[in-house]
């Protein structure tokens, strides 16, 4: 494997000097106010907390819907013979 | 994480934003990108930073996040741009913002490296990070980092020789 020290010390010093020059170059930064970042983080943290608190309720809502549909289906299956009999009875009476 | 209150965050921000911004700016050559990456890095520090009061660990986290964001941008660019637009030295150097011709030359020389080489060299020389830290920051294997760093140094050495900028040569 290539060694980190394959360049000579002199070359390495030369690179380090150049990198110091790069680091010292003026950067056109206007330092903004950090508070909007801090408030944004607080807001996101609050939303995350709300989402976490809401998650079990969302699950229960789905469970309620599924349970309601299942109950309605069971009721329908249980009631079909009775309803059929009630509807058919007048016709059967007419026919004698 | 150990919560930073408004005042502590402001103090940490003010002592690190210039250096972080300079790193991203020298790597991307773009002030708007540097603004975006620096802001996002500080935001992630607040949301998911290390559980510590040690400012040095926070600083490392900041550079790791910023470097990861840079890597994401390179990957996105690789997908979006045609190959011929991706040569080293074709990116903005930020030299136009400098008044001293020598500074402009330094900025242009540095911009002739690839973005990854610039990030590697900055983290190694300016931030003084270890190979392991650089590997973690740039999402590169620990074994590869020595080779990548050596190649970046060699390319910079060649550029310096070619342009006669090397003080010792």
Unreliable runs of chain B, pLDDT <50, ≥5 residues?
none
- Strand fraction of chain A equals under 5%
Major β-sheet annotation of chain A: none
Number of E-state strands of chain B: 0
- What oligomeric state is this? heterodimer
Low-confidence stretches of chain A: none
First and last CA, distance of chain B: 49 Å
Can you describe this structure?
The complex is a heterodimer of chains A (96) and B (169). Chain A contains 2 helices and no strands. Chain A is mostly helical and 96 residues long. Chain A starts with 8 loop residues before the first helix and ends with a helix. The model of chain A has no long low-confidence stretch (mean pLDDT 86). Chain B is built from 7 helices and no strands. The N and C termini of chain B lie far apart (49 Å). Chain B has helices spanning 6-28, 31-48, 55-80, 101-111, 115-126, 131-138, 142-163. Chain B is mainly alpha-helical and 169 residues long. Chain B is globular, with a radius of gyration of 17 Å. Chains A and B meet through α1 and α2 of A and α1, α2, α4, α5 and α7 of B.
Briefly characterize the structure.
Chain A is an all-alpha fold and 96 residues long.
Q: What tags apply to this protein structure?
A:
heterodimer; A: 96 residues; mainly alpha; B: 169 residues; 7 helices; 0% strand
């Amino acid at each position: 494997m290539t060694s980190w020290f394959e360049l000579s010390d002199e070359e390495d010093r030369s690179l380090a000097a150049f990198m110091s020059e790069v680091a010292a170059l003026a950067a056109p930064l206007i330092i903004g106010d950090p508070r909007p970042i801090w408030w944004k983080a607080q807001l996101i943290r609050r939303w995350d907390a709300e989402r976490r608190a809401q998650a079990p309720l969302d699950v229960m809502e789905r469970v309620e819907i599924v349970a309601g549909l299942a109950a309605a289906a069971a009721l329908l299956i249980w009631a079909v013979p009775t309803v059929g009999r009630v509807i058919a009875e007048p016709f059967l009476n007419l026919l004698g | 994480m150990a919560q930073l209150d408004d005042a502590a965050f402001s103090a940490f921000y003010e002592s690190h934003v210039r250096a972080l911004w300079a790193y991203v700016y020298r790597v991307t050559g773009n002030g708007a990108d540097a603004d975006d990456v620096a802001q996002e890095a500080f935001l992630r520090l607040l949301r998911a930073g290390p559980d510590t009061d040690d400012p040095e660990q926070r600083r490392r986290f900041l550079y790791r996040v910023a470097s990861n964001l840079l890597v994401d941008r390179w990957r996105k660019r690789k997908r979006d741009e045609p190959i011929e637009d991706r040569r080293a030295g074709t990116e903005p150097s930020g030299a136009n913002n400098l008044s001293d011709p020598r500074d402009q030359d330094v900025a242009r020389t540095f911009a002739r490296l690839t973005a990854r080489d610039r990030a590697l060299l900055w983290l190694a020389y300016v931030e003084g990070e270890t190979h392991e830290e650089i590997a973690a920051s740039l999402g590169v294997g620990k074994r590869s980092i020595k080779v990548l760093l050596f190649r970046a140094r060699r390319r910079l050495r060649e550029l310096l020789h070619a342009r006669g900028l090397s003080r010792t040569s």
